[in-house]
DNA sequence: CGTATGCTCAAACGATCGTTTGATTCCTGC
DNA sequence: GCAGGAATCAAACGATCGTTTGAGCATACG
């Protein structure tokens, strides 16, 4: 595997486990089996590496989300659950692919960081995705004020981040595969969020 | 103010802003206006300081939560919204008191850390609070299976953490006080969570 | 063959980390 | 008023941090 890919993979894992500050380039390059200087050579700096970790996954994730939304957007038969599914399913697929599940934890850390630079990066690059989903929710929930809708979408985001990153206290039981566990998480999440959104 | 209190206050602020690894003892003691060695003298180590930051706030927070729950527990007139209020209101009061609001961000970081030691500490010391609230929800939602209930409570926790720590993209408008903003957050949260919990 | 070009490597840079030390100051109780 | 523990202080400890350097290696092109 090319050096850049090995670095990105190891970075994803260690950022998820120890945070951006907590994971050192020495641990990281050792885990990737590359030289210490390789990070600065290929990415310029640790901060640029962090951005690249996000870009790689979010490009794919949000691309799939928008594609799924496109398919059902405007359709009179589309339900709240369908829209939630379009948002959640790609995250589910990602978490089934290799250590993609770790990326959801990285994403959760980014929220916790409250770092303005990072927030601006995420907002600039992927804010339009949230806007399109919110617009679709607005179409399906015309009785809600703009402000009320924003609040609810924000709360859905919170529950989603919490659930998909494995924050919660609910631990996977040993007789359930990781795959099944995530599927169940998504099902519960969609039902819960749909009820919250539909609340009069 | 005594040295220990000044350290705890500065620690809360810097842990919220820069994380546990990101905030150094040198920044921290400088902000508190105390000597560098004071942390190790009064707390033993940085890790023990972190635990003390949690203990100080959570003792008060969960004490108030249980007291509020005690008042309404078992009452036939009690609603889901009441129980949610008993859980959320003390967090709201805390966030109105000085830099108590920063503590909610510290708490959110603790979730993101995924650190086993920290999780065990929180679970051991304050798990019984979650258990009592869950029991009251179970009484009010007898049609839900134990598993289903656990899932929903977990998702409520996620939305709560997200909202109260100010993760979300919703920013307070300049014509609204911090106090009012938090009140509104709590109102939206209670309505949203109640709908999710009550979902058939 | 010679020589660019892209990449890897060990080593070192200065800065900063958490912690410890030993001297000094403060304050309390006899 | 003085002994003695509590608290504060400047300084230093070894370790580790992100980054830079310059030599060495490889592959491709004239």
Report on the structure:
Two copies of one chain form a homodimer. Chain A is an all-alpha fold and 200 residues long. Chain A contains nine helices and no strands. Chain A has helices at residues 3-22, 25-32, 38-43, 46-72, 80-96, 100-113, 116-140, 146-164, 178-198. In chain A, helix 1 packs antiparallel against helix 2 (25-32), helix 5 (80-96) crosses helix 6 (100-113) and helix 8 (146-164) packs antiparallel against helix 9. The first copy, chain A, starts with a helix and ends with a helix. Chains A and B meet through helix 1, helix 6, helix 8 and helix 9 of A and helix 1, helix 6, helix 8 and helix 9 of B. Chain A binds a DNA duplex (30 and 30 nucleotides) through residues 3, 24-26, 34-42, 45-46.
Number of strands of chain A: 0
Summing up helix and strand content along with how strands pair, one would put the structural category of chain A as mainly alpha
Largest sheet of chain A: none
- The low-pLDDT segments of chain A are none
Which chain pair shows the most residues in contact? Answer: A-B, 46 and 46 residues
Features:
homodimer, 200 residues, mainly alpha, 9 helices, 78% helix, DNA-binding
Describe the protein's topology.
The structure is a homodimer of 200-residue chains.
Chain A: H1 3-22, H2 25-32, H3 38-43, H4 46-72, H5 80-96, H6 100-113, H7 116-140, H8 146-164, H9 178-198
Helix pairs in contact in A: 1-2, 1-4, 1-6, 4-5, 4-7, 5-6, 5-9, 8-9
The structure holds a DNA duplex (30 and 30 nucleotides).
